């Protein structure tokens, strides 16, 4: 059977670091409060002249370099993001141009924090059908541009960056074993950006009413995330006849340490089998899993033949999982 195998990973984050102590000077909060409730100590923030495509391009170049693949060999470029450079053209088209992937089709996926998994699922299906041989899947965000920095309920949580993978058609047992994606639009109001679309255009009134910033009902999102991520993790394992005991490394969406710990406990995983870098980057939405994967890969936390589980949850609401044999 032809499988989609990840043969290269890459990531890129801004140089600017925003610590909890910096936030203490901006809103009514403290390092202890943030750390206790989220597990976040710092996050990276894009600077002037840096955009989602900036980090997506850097991550893509690093993934291609590791894979030993030239950009013109790519058949497909997918970017998962909710903070594109522009409403259109797609950020994937900007990345395609930047890296000179002249033979690739390119499009974006909007699934919030599940965006990378949605993109990986799409690429995997293209590869299984034989229509694509090599694909580049990126999760990239500059969330700092849609954050209300006076709202302590949200400004503490998010950061910027990008992660990328090169996926190639391969024969054998290694590669993506299965992907599972879900959504429930009845909960759309729990996490969304009110303005800058056709419902509430980007007018002066939208700015004055602060509709141009992300809004979230954190407690409700937390409860739904724990349940949905636990269920889809078991779904992915069951599809391959596996159990949590088979997982060598679990790479969940890095949203909140309490969510990660709750999912790990539900799966019965020891801490050394759960990859966490949330403390250094915060919630980078669609970028969080591929950034974590690149760090895990480059630090030799994964070896050939390992069973790796990705698991994410985001606005939409969307959620999903992917199980791989590395």
**N-to-C series of helices and strands:** EEHHEHEHEHEEEEHEHEHHHEE
Q: In percent terms, what proportion of residues is strand? A: 15-25%
What structural category arises from helix and sheet content?
A: alpha/beta
Question: Any low-confidence stretches, pLDDT <50, length ≥5?
Answer: none
Mean of residue pLDDT values: 97
* DSSP summary: helix tally: 10
The neighbouring-strand order within the major sheet is 1-7-6-4-5
Mass-distribution shape: globular
Biggest sheet architecture: 5 strands, mixed
Give Rg in angstroms.
19 Å
Please give the share of residues in helix. Answer: 25-40%
Q: Count every beta strand, where a strand is a DSSP E run of 2 or more residues.
A: 13
- What is the terminal-to-terminal distance? 16 Å
Please characterize this protein's 3D structure.
The chain is 33% helix and 25% strand. It has ten helices and 13 strands. The chain has a five-stranded mixed sheet with strand order 1-7-6-4-5, with helices on both faces. 50% of the residues are buried. The model has no long low-confidence stretch (mean pLDDT 97).
